[in-house]
Request: fold
Amino acid sequence: MIFLRYESFRSYLRFYPVTSALLALNILVYILDLLSGHVLLTKGMFISYRGYNHYGFDEPWRYVTSLFLHLNLEHILFNMFSILVFAPPLERMLGHGRYAVFYLLSGVIGNLFSALALSETQGAGASGAIYGIFGAYLYLALMKKTLDEASRKTVYAILGFGIIYSFVVPRIGIWAHIGGLFGGFALAYIYDWYLLARRGR
Reply:
């Protein structure tokens, strides 16, 4: 099971510096947003309306800033727990720099899916990027078949629960989740293809 964490706090910081930085940045931004009266959330959340900022292209920074903003305590706790537990194996597989790019691109793709699917949307949170992480694991489970059985079942169970939860609970960015999942799967495929192409030279 690759998702069990046995590291000490110091070892976690040393082995997974990007994941640690993402956790710290999300928590810091959440605190600053509370202190500002949610000014950061208003100015940084992702917004797309047909008559204003269509597809988010008028204010493109929101594609990234929204990934570090959260609506409430429950929202950030759930997302930070997911990053804490599930992100480290992927950072180790990809390497620190590639993992950072993968995380951000997955979140951006999630926001783009939301904008394309809905005439009006606004949202915030790391969940699009988190679903991208699960998309990479889904690729490893289905296409590469390199995940152990326990890890594979964990990925299937979390994705099944997450998709159902996204449809049942109101105000959940289902299209950002689906987009992040698709983005993570596609990026994992592209990276795998790149590695195979390099080995074939």
Observations:
- The mean pLDDT is 94.
- The chain has nine helices and two strands.
- The two ends are 34 Å apart (CA to CA).
- The beta strands are 46-49, 120-123.
